[in-house]
């Protein structure tokens, strides 16, 4: 990579929460920016150029015209990084995939629905090759900084490939299943330090399935602990609507 | 062994005194009817009758994440990092003291783990006779109900308001007598302590091993192809919970991270676990335990045989934490050992 790689940020269907997380790095961000040249970043900077090495892309693909734009970004960038759950796994946008196309079009655009073609939400990797994924909804600032540093040092960015339970136990939490609650940490990729459980909630699966997730076992666990399928399905559809393996 | 008698009311002033110099950790009630260790403060309600600390105490010697080195990316100079906060763990059950003793041996063998040892040496262990037994525990059936060393003091509640305190080290005695002399334990106190132990042993009759635990290593050796491995491993989530909560699991992974200026960095270690899918993946990407069955069996081999081959005692103290932590309800050394025993009894 050149001495000062040029980086650019783009967004599709999403809330820009991940770019905000990046902007919130504040001092750390300033140090990192010493090593790169930002050519496009709406959250902190005006102006834009098509000359960039690393593209950070947030949001899901929900319209045919998104695809052309994403392919162009892919063609310009040496490295394409998917930023946040909408981009990596489709995320909350995929809730609409469980409705009919007419229903969600009309819900959003009312009588003008036919002017705005929109289809089932999908992650970036359904359209182009993604080189690096930064998971989470929103992304973890610390993890973003780590991955960018690894890229700048020429290392292969590392992602945890085990379930959230590992980090949850390290944090010393009492397991939600021992409190009579359901939790998707048993199948979700770690990396967030189990923040939701630590804060008193449960894991919603925003970082996507762990590559080794044993879904059959998870189904059995949820059955054994007395959770009905509808409940499981609801939780699975929150972030994991695009996975091919509903529980 | 020297022993003293301590009144319940004398304990809080002692704790306050110790706290001037040490971080003091005690068992307290946690969410959902569980218990865990937490820092003692004025007014903290100590759960003297806790059954099991939800999380393992190894975190005080081998924290979940710990810096080992700092380095300079330009000059390649490195500086070792050692931390050794002075701490007192009060109310540690004997099986957990045994787990610490086991870690001491393993961490000292070969190239001594100086980070571990620095923390261990700065820690005072105050053991305590349990008054209750967790429904998942089986320490009483594998000889882990008593411990002969590794503690500085050993408390036994001999009446609602009195403890008999045995001395395990000079340091322990100093701390116990820091606020003034105490009466020596009488023969009656010792008898009351013996009875307290008998009482908790009687409470722990339900989770038994069906054979003498000393046969376990042999049993494991013959049980390599047993059916129990496949049957249980099918349900394994590879979540590592059983490893992480285990007081005798000590595996860690070493990583490095640069700071934001890319000028300096740190090397740190974090808990790892053999139940995680890529635990046994080595350079070049080869994983020598790809199957859930192999990983599941490996963990029990460690507990029942490999550790025993090294130091002559089981690698499991029967605390029952993994049994509780496993949401799939398959982690259970006692059940596995019994299943192997039954298998072999049928085969003979
Ligand atoms: S991943 Fe989450 S934070 Fe990021 S855009 Fe989507 S909804 Fe917002
Ligand atoms: S609370 Fe969730 S993430 Fe934590 S150990 Fe339990 S299942 Fe795993
Ligand atoms: S605990 Fe689960 S839902 Fe929460 S941040 Fe982590 S992966 Fe996402
Ligand atoms: S294997 Fe399980 S029961 Fe044995 S010491 Fe470890 S956590 Fe406790
Ligand atoms: S806790 Fe249970 S499910 Fe998780 S790795 Fe251990 S045996 Fe497997």
Helicity level of chain B: 25-40%
Unreliable runs of chain A: none
Strand content of chain A: 5-15%
Radius of gyration of chain B, CA atoms, in whole angstroms = 22 Å
Output the keywords.
heterodimer; A: 247 residues; alpha/beta; five-stranded parallel sheet; 10 helices; 5 strands; 34% helix; 9% strand; B: 348 residues; seven-stranded mixed sheet; four-stranded antiparallel sheet; 11 helices; 33% helix; binds iron/sulfur cluster
Summarize the structure.
The complex is a heterodimer of chains A (about 250) and B (about 350). Chain A has helices spanning about 15-25, 25-35, 65-75, 85-90, 100-110, 140-150, 165-170, 195-200, 215-225, 230-240; strands at about 5-10, 35-40, 55-60, 80-85, 130-135.
Folded structure, characterized:
The complex is a heterodimer of chains A (247) and B (348). With 247 residues, chain A is α/β, with parallel strands linked by helices. Chain A is built from 10 helices and 5 strands, in the order βααββαβααβααααα. Chain A has a 5-stranded parallel sheet. In chain A, helix 3 links the parallel strand 3 and strand 4. Chain A is globular, with a radius of gyration of 19 Å. The termini of chain A are far apart. The longest helix of chain B is centred in the last third of the chain and has 20 residues. Chain B contains 11 helices and 11 strands. In chain B, 33% of the residues lie in helices and 20% in strands. Chains A and B meet through helix 2, helix 6, helix 7 and helix 9 of A and helix 8 and strand 10 of B.
């Amino acid at each position: 990579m050149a001495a000062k790689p040029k980086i650019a940020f783009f967004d599709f269907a999403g809330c820009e929460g991940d770019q905000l997380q990046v902007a919130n790095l504040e001092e750390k961000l300033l140090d990192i920016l010493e090593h790169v040249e930002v050519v496009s970043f709406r959250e902190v900077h005006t102006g834009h150029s098509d000359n960039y090495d690393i593209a950070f892309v947030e949001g899901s693909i929900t319209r045919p015209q998104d695809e052309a734009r994403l392919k162009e970004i892919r063609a310009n960038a040496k490295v394409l990084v998917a930023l946040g759950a909408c981009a990596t796994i489709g995320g909350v946008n995929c809730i609409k995939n469980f409705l009919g196309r007419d229903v969600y079009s009309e819900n959003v655009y009312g009588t003008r629905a036919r002017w705005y073609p929109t289809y089932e939400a999908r992650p970036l990797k359904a359209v182009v090759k993604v080189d690096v994924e930064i998971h989470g909804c929103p992304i973890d600032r610390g993890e973003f900084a780590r991955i960018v540093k690894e890229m700048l040092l020429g290392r292969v960015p590392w992602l945890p490939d085990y379930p959230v339970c590992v980090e949850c136990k390290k944090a010393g939490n009492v397991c939600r299943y021992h409190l009579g609650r359901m939790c998707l940490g048993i199948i979700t990729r770690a990396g967030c330090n189990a923040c939701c459980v630590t804060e008193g909630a449960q894991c919603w699966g925003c970082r996507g399935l762990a590559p080794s997730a044993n879904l059959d076992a998870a189904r059995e666990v949820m059955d054994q602990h007395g959770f009905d399928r509808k409940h499981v399905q609801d939780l699975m559809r929150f972030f994991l609507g695009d996975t091919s393996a509903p529980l | 062994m020297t022993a003293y008698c301590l009144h319940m009311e004398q304990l809080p002033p002692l704790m306050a005194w110790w706290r001037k110099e040490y971080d003091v950790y005690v068992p307290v009630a946690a969410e959902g009817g569980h218990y865990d260790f937490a820092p003692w403060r004025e007014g903290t309600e100590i759960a003297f009758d806790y059954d099991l600390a939800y999380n393992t105490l190894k975190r005080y010697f081998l924290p979940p994440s710990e810096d080992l080195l700092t380095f300079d990316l330009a000059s390649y100079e490195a500086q070792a990092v050692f931390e050794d906060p002075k701490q007192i763990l009060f109310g540690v059950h004997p099986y957990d003291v045994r787990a610490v003793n086991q870690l001491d041996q393993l961490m000292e063998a070969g190239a001594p783990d100086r980070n571990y040892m620095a923390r261990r040496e700065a820690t005072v262990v105050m053991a305590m006779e349990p008054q209750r037994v967790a429904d998942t525990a089986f320490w009483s059936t594998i000889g882990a109900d008593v411990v002969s060393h590794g503690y500085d003091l050993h408390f036994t509640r001999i009446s609602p308001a009195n403890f008999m305190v045995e001395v395990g080290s000079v340091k322990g005695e100093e701390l116990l007598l820091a606020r003034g002399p105490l009466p020596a334990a009488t023969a009656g106190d010792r008898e009351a302590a013996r009875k307290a132990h008998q009482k908790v042993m009687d409470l722990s009759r339900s989770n038994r091993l069906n054979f003498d635990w000393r046969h376990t290593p042999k049993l494991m050796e013959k049980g390599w192809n047993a059916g129990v491995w496949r049957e249980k491993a099918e349900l394994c989530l590879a979540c590592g919970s059983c490893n992480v909560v285990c007081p005798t699991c000590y595996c860690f992974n070493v990583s490095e991270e640069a700071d934001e200026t890319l000028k300096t960095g740190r090397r740190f270690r974090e808990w790892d676990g053999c139940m995680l899918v890529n635990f046994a993946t080595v350079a070049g990407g080869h994983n020598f335990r790809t199957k859930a069955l192999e990983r599941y069996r490996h963990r029990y081999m460690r507990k029942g045989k490999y550790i025993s081959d090294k130091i002559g005692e089981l690698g499991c103290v029967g605390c029952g934490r993994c049994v509780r932590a496993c949401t799939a309800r398959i982690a259970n050394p006692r059940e596995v050992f019994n299943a192997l025993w039954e298998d072999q009894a049928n085969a003979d």
